[in-house]
Amino acid sequence: MKYVVFLGDGMADFAVKELGNKTPLEVAKKPNIDFLASKGTMGMIKTVPDGMKPGSDVANLGAMGFDPQEYYTGRSPLEAVSVGIDLDDSDITFRVNLVTLSDDENYEDKTMIDYSSDEITTEEAAELINDIAKQLDTDIYKFYPGFSYRHVLVWNGGHTDFQLTPPHDITGKKVAEYLPKGKDSHVLLDFMKKSCEILKDHPVNKKRIERGLRPASSIWVWGEGKKAVLPEFEKMRGVKGAVVSAVDLIKGIGISAKMTCAEVEGATGNIHTNFEGKAEAAINLLKDHDFVYIHVEAPDECGHRGEVENKVKSIEIIDQKIVGPVLNYLNSLNEDYKALVMPDHPTPLELMTHVADPVPFIVFQKSKQMDENTKVYTEENCKKSGIYYENGYKLMDDFID
Where a domain ends, among 226, 252, 282? Predict the structure, then answer.
């Protein structure tokens, strides 16, 4: 038996005025996913437990079958593992975004223009973060480059007593109300302010401005956490698992669970990612793995940026360039398979951030196809099924028999 998860990050949504009061899933042309819906079982799943923030960290742990209330220790430790940082038990980690802030002189007066600095390239970002590290690293604090706008700060002997805000939650807002709070928060704020001076006239930023791109004008620190310990996926589930993703966080979950993590050239985590490469990587992994978790970030990024047409387009591309080819390969095998389609959380276009609402799912099994019907994969149709997983991580119990 082969098992494949098609995880469209942030794919679920609310009705959108620009789409005739329909959701992107209702509007998108997605024949492969809708085939699975017509022959499979649809329902709703709550991936974010009550009282926990609806981040992709919590939601993907739940989607992958790990109880977030038991295993979640923060977002950044998973990202740190993904970029090869060997953490001590006394280390506290933080996500560091390269962001674009407004040009106001006082930091507190600045506005969050772009949480991703126009999706800065990994190569440009590495140069910036390495220069920040040269000036701000100590024996206690160390900065590490990651992927695109996503990087890591490690504080040896630190703590997690902070109130920190994800930058994608405050696009277009003045930052004053959302600056670090809590014990020792001045340390993090000092790093953020000093980074402005380091980045202000940096050659990388000058070249970006010349090309009409936003500069990375500051770091933004958030996502605190401590070293995570996950059970091995294969020992837990009895199947050999692998992950395909462009996002450090998802790779970090896979690495922590001793799963194989594919490296896909040109995989960016946005709508310009290498969709074909992800499909090819998944197919190659299925040759010697039982379970492959294919994570695609594009719908989430479009949701955060309020890009209505691109969110619809991203769902259509996932269907055409990932779901279709992978299903064709699975159907060519002389064995049974199961497919799971779901988002981790909704990223509504009107809010441009995550919410903790339940998300729609499909479970399809080749050998147990239901009578064909005209149902398609939408939030409303999944609600109508009456099937609901209150504890989202338990869906994986049923998916992998």
Answer: 226
